[in-house]
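Minutes, project check-in

Agenda point 3 was the complex the collaborators sent over. CS summarized: two entities, 513 residues total, and the question is how they sit relative to each other. Sequences were read into the notes so everyone works from the same version.
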Amino acid sequence: MALLIKKLKAYTLIETIISMVIIMLVFSVAMMIFINVVKTDRIIERTDIFFKMNEIIHESKTHQEYINYTFEFENFIIERTISRYLNSKKLKQLTVKAYDKNDKLIAEKSELIIDF
Amino acid sequence: MAYYNKMVYTSYIEKDRVFSNVNSGINLLLAEPETVELNSSKRRSLFESYNDLVLLERKQWGIFELIKVSSWWKNFSFQKIAFTGHYYKNDSSYAIYLADQNKPLSLCGKTEITGNCYLPKAGLKRAYIEGRNFEGKELINGNITFSQDSLPEIIDTFKNLDLEYFKQNYLESDETFKIIAEEIPEDSLFNSFSDSTILLYTKNDLLLDNIVLTGNITLLCEGTLEITNSCRFEDILVYGKSVWIEEGFAGKFQLFAKDTINIGENVQFKYPSVIGLINDNKEGNTNPSMVNFERGSSFFGVIYSSCHSDVITIDPILKTSEDTKLSGQVYWAGIFDIKGMVNGSVACKKFLLKTPSSIYENHLLDVIIDLDGLSEYYTGVELTGTDRINKVIKWLY
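CS then shared the predicted structure for the full assembly.
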């Protein structure tokens, strides 16, 4: 009786498990590096500040609130100022600035508003 | 991946700044239009920062001012275009300005006047016409001030919208794309206000049938122009020596003529429309010129007349019918044969009332002139000039 023995080339169970563990380890390290880079760059915080600044400008225009004020938002200080634009009697400049705890300017946005 | 993430964030922030700069540019041109000369453009830094450059443009489009503001960042750009004007209701708005020709204003029937009025020193009277007395409680619901013997002068920018102006600015300009009006290639033309103006020109009489014209298009006809009700016009400029509009037409555009504009029954001019009767004869107006609204027609915008010469031999006539409704501003340097209703303000030299038995000057019978009926959001053009802040009449494309 001819024995038909075919040798099937494949990985053993242990080899597969070990390679999966290695891939997971590499992926975890890559994610940690990515999260670290993003955190250092403070992109998440800057995104929050950006949306907050837009919200302040929108509310100022909607409610016609044109007085200077400063307040704390998360770990930052946000300052809203209104001034005459280039000595115009009809235009105001609304500026919103965000500073970190070291008084370093993180973001700034200005917009012109008509003074009816 | 981290770099791409940062790039996406930066791109989002900068695009938002572009939108914000364009809005600021629009507000700058509304509040301080003299920042840029009319019919020119200027590049400017808004806040003396590296990323706040805007391109500001101002152009005249009929009696409206067209403003265009663009801003950009790398390959991304954004622009906004609008018609602007500076007439809107305020404390100094009036319902009637009637030039003082030593004749009082007489009211009869169910006439209602709401709003402040500038009237002749001869005053205001009740009248008895065709067996009818004045049937209201108060003659005028508003304050009365004395008027001058002529209407307030309109500024040259609006006086000069005659054939010469259209030829100089459109026919002789290298920047317009010219098409012979009798050979319009398609049955509809659309042109953006960010592109060059298209001029449709003819020296002869012209009949327009089944044509849709939208946007940055000027139609210049040196003869008589007839517009059928199968046409649709939006935001374009039209000039004809005389213009006849068939009953049932609807559109919103600026129409200028020298001799006559006849508006058929049930024609609708929607907001923002303009009708201007401009007599460019420097020796004076020797032929009768007229704008006539037939029954059921309506108009929302600015109607005005002007003459280049101070010597007026025959006053132009503005005639409306019983169920005609005008909304907006009427500035008529001539005779207003008024019936129907005006929601807004009227300035004219004289009123005229024709009855089967007689003709009366400065008499109003069953007429409603109601300034309160004009929307507080209405924005038109102050023809006599003002330094008020401009407002947007319509956003464009």
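Noted in discussion: Chain B touches chain A at residues 1-2, 5-6, 9, 13, 16-17, 20, 23-25, 27-28, 30-32, 46-47, 49, 52, 389 (CB under 8 Å).
Follow-up: revisit at the next meeting once the mutant set is ready.
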